[in-house]
Design goal:
The protein is of the alpha+beta class. The relative contact order is 0.12. It has 6 helices and 8 strands. The longest helix has 17 residues. The radius of gyration is 19 Å and the shape is elongated. It folds into 2 domains: 75 residues, Nucleic acid-binding proteins (OB fold (Dihydrolipoamide Acetyltransferase, E2P)), CATH 2.40.50; 120 residues, no CATH class.
């Protein structure tokens, strides 16, 4: 079984004297794990950081076995964000969430392109936290747990949608949800339209929203908490006054 594909590195850990076990999010084939010879070397380590863009060439004698891969870096990758610790935290969190949520060897091109959009936005701190929330919402959509924000679940109205049901993921209007506001999740306007502006607390509300559904419907299936890298990102955003 051989293929070549665009990919993002999700994780890498040393294996043996100089090799590494690398998780890749490929464009056309989903999440793949492979052995990269020399992956733990000083020369290769910079290319195998979470979020690095590569061309991966994968080979396995049979589809069920752990295959091997060679990787060719594309662009600067995380090195371009060396002076942007918040952006690096965002990239690491996205890689950890994708690695933990996506099943292995199952095509999810939407997840790849959502990751690509986030990676392209990380240079702009005013924008990328919202893109990160959209990345997680897109990941939920890819996995079959997409939010339904088209109309109010109670009335069918498309106006003044400000809440989301934590049980169904459907939007709820202000009027219908006000009596139950304490039990509902807040819906930030930027998730309703790309032109929606960012107000105080919107990023925090977005992270609470996507985090709830990732935790309840994706990670709980594997009896795992949300990745520590995501918790770290929220802490860093809060310290920077971005939540």
């Amino acid at each position: 079984m051989d293929f070549e594909d665009d990919a993002f590195v999700l994780s890498a850990r040393a294996h043996g004297e100089a090799g590494a076990i690398v998780e890749l999010l490929t464009a056309g084939r989903g999440r793949y794990v492979a052995h990269v010879a020399g992956g733990a070397s000083r020369r290769m380590r910079p290319f195998l950081q979470p979020g690095a863009r590569v061309i991966a060439r994968y080979r396995a004698r049979v589809s069920e076995q752990l295959g091997s891969a060679s990787v060719e870096p594309v662009g600067e990758g995380p090195a371009a964000l060396f002076d942007e610790p918040l952006a690096l935290a965002g990239l690491s969190a996205a890689a950890s969430v994708a690695a933990g949520a996506l099943p292995e060897r199952e095509p999810h091109p939407g997840a790849f392109f959502a990751f690509e959009a986030l990676a392209g936005a990380l240079a702009d701190l005013d924008i990328w936290p919202a893109v990160y929330v959209r990345f997680e919402a897109g990941l939920l959509q890819e996995l079959g747990f997409g939010l339904d924000l088209s109309k109010c679940a109670a009335t069918g109205s498309t106006d003044d949608l400000v809440y989301v049901s934590p049980r169904t993921g459907r939007a709820v209007s202000r009027a219908a949800g006000e009596p139950y506001a304490e039990r509902l999740l807040k819906l930030p306007p930027f998730l309703l339209a790309s032109q929606g502006g960012l107000g105080p607390g919107d990023i925090a509300a977005g992270l609470d929203l996507t985090g709830h559904f990732l935790e309840q419907f994706v990670f709980a299936v594997f009896n795992r908490p949300l990745p520590p890298a995501r918790v770290w990102l929220i802490d860093r955003l809060r310290e920077a006054g971005r939540l």
